[in-house]
Amino acid sequence: MTPPPLLVLTDRSQCSRPLRDVVAAAVDAGARGVVLREKDLPDDERGRLADDLRALLEPVDGLLIRAGGAGAGVDDAVHLSAHEPFPPRRPALVGRSCHSAAELARARDEGCDYAFLSPVFPTPSKPGYGPAVGVDGFARLVAGGLPTWALGGVRPEHVPALVATGGSGVAVMGPVMRDPGLVSNYLSEFD
């Protein structure tokens, strides 16, 4: 199981309309991978939301990844924060958020299948995670062999340069939550 090159991260606080509607529009625009964040929701509500989003993705052979190790018992694909422990029962796909070379090395060594590296560009949704690494810093950091997606301030026009560095793709939250039609702009840059 491999994530698609464009991953959409959810954040209902940035949505232009209900989250399910935003994800449906993103899928209609071509998104095939969604990372469900919304960790503040109660488990049962988050589980129902995961089921709803999975139902949107299944007809297009899309992938739902649930953020947080707590989902490892029920999900095939889990995305961990930089400091969450690796799940005791390994899901089919495990990713990790990273912000440094040391965190990328840890993710690789513990057996993660992929990583997000952020922030690549300045972004208000990643305060406190250090300075943006830019395209050159991303290129240096992805050289370790772990498939890595760029996250943080990534706009469609950044995609070709990030992929040219050896990056596996990009992960986007705010722009798509505010305007899910932008998915097609991101996807067109992978051609």
TrEMBL record:
GO cellular component labels: cytoplasm
GO molecular function: thiamine-phosphate diphosphorylase activity
InterPro entries per record: Aldolase_TIM, ThiamineP_synth_sf, ThiamineP_synth_TenI
Pathway(s) this gene product operates in, as recorded in its UniProt entry: Cofactor biosynthesis; thiamine diphosphate biosynthesis
Keyword Secreted set for record: no
Domain named Thiamine phosphate synthase/TenI: residues: 7-174
Keyword Transport listed: no
Keywords (A to Z) from UniProt: Thiamine biosynthesis
GO BP term (any one): thiamine biosynthetic process
Residue ranges crossing the lipid bilayer per the database entry: none
Superkingdom of this protein's organism: Bacteria
Pfam families, sorted: TMP-TENI
Function: Condenses 4-methyl-5-(beta-hydroxyethyl)thiazole monophosphate (THZ-P) and 2-methyl-4-amino-5-hydroxymethyl pyrimidine pyrophosphate (HMP-PP) to form thiamine monophosphate (TMP).
Name the UniProt record assigns to this protein: Thiamine-phosphate pyrophosphorylase
